[in-house]
């Protein structure tokens, strides 16, 4: 009894840990999505625009004294850079030079790492460790179940060979009320008469089922809770990966597209004066086209630098790094892992249901066996025997499957 109660408490602790792990995973992945959205959807596009304008101004700065085209385009790019940076909040990515690399643009992953430091408690959550703690409690619970099962089998075995003193039976008070007397909590085949011994042994087997089946149900319930928690955690990770990596990929695609557009504009400017007669204005425009071509190449470098997936050296949390590095090719495997845990949870739930049915059959068999033995109708013991056999069959099929 003590081992069974201890196992129940240990499995309860395991279930609490599994629920805590899911709650921690939810908080963590929600923070990952929100910070990724803010950094890559709100701040990064404007940061790329500022970096692109600064790069364009730098490319045209050497030509501004050679003609009005370069001077005008330089002034536009310079004023765009100045206005956007000075109208930004001081704490934003473009509000200072803290994240700026003059050649590559803004360090977006490092900005994300600093955003995460605003809520350090969330990123210190360790749902994996919480799940392991729950698994530890469940392992202890299974040890306790083993001890309880061994104790039950020992008692049943002792009842088969030992001859204890008869259980006290209250004296009959007479009257017409019919009661069942002489029923022992554990049947005693060793003290039964020879004609009742086999029926008593069958009765004892049914009693053993009533003690052992709840133990198996406890283990099945714990396995179901763990698999459900794992399935929920994988679903949360998958959702965060789709959202976070989608934000990063969208920004990277837009930035790379902007570099292609700049290259197209430079090529178009070159084509516009391709067949013009040589003159200072034509030479100036060709020089501007060449500068814009170099600017487009730098834009591609900036796009790849700013939109890169975070690495271990960027200071980004492991959860954010995993979500941002995920690719669409990884999602089927992530879904498969989630579905695998969901299937395990369903299977464990089915085992618990079948064991409950086996327990119900064992209860019916116990009632019938006790009643028939007390009434002395041994010829009808085939009914509880058949029901007990069905209960054992369901239990064996459930455990082995």
Major sheet details: 2 strands, antiparallel
pLDDT < 50 stretches: 178-183
Mean pLDDT rating: 88
The counted number of beta strands is: 2
Distance between the termini: 28 Å
* Largest sheet strand order: 1-2
Q: What is the helix fraction of residues, given as a range?
A: over 70%
Alpha-beta content class: mainly alpha
H/I helix tally: 10
String of helices and strands: HHEEHHHHHHHH
Range of strand content: under 5%
The value of Rg in angstroms is 38 Å
**Shape by Cα distribution:** rod-shaped
Describe the structure.
The chain is mostly helical and 401 residues long. The protein contains ten helices and two strands. It has a two-stranded antiparallel ribbon. Helix 1 runs antiparallel to helix 7, helix 6 (197-272) packs antiparallel against helix 9 (331-375) and helix 6 (197-272) runs parallel beside helix 10. Mean pLDDT is 88; it is low at 178-183.
Itemize the secondary structure elements and their pairings.
Blueprint: H1 2-61, H2 68-86, E1 100-101, E2 105-106, H3 108-116, H4 120-123, H5 127-161, H6 197-272, H7 280-306, H8 318-325, H9 331-375, H10 382-400
Helix pairs in contact: 1-2, 1-3, 1-5, 1-6, 1-7, 1-8, 5-6, 6-7, 6-8, 6-9, 6-10, 9-10
Keywords for this structure?
75% helix; mainly alpha; 2 strands; 401 residues
Brief rundown of the structure:
This protein has 401 residues and is mainly α. The chain contains 10 helices and 2 strands.
